[in-house]
Amino acid sequence: MLWVYYASAIFLFGATFTFTRAKLMSSGREMDAVVVGGKNENNKCD
After folding, report:
1. What is this structure's pTM?
2. Which of 19, 24, 25, 43 is deepest in the core (most CB within 10 A)?
């Protein structure tokens, strides 16, 4: 039964990743800027 837990965790992680990526792509933000910490022209962090 442990493999069911791990398989569902991997599946749900993939679903969350896909949902988040689709949401970011539809909002027009750059994916690489979000991955490196959200630093882009509109959000300058020092």
Report:
1. 0.51
2. 24
For residue 45, the one-letter residue type is C
Cβ within 8 Å of residue 15, ≥6 positions away: none
Q: Average the pLDDT over 25-46 and give the result.
A: 60
User: C-alpha angle with apex 40: 20 to 36, nearest 5 degrees?
Assistant: 55
b/e burial code for range 20-39 (CB count within 10 A of at least 16 → b): eeeeeeeeeeeeeeeeeeee
45, 38 contact by CB (below 8 A): yes
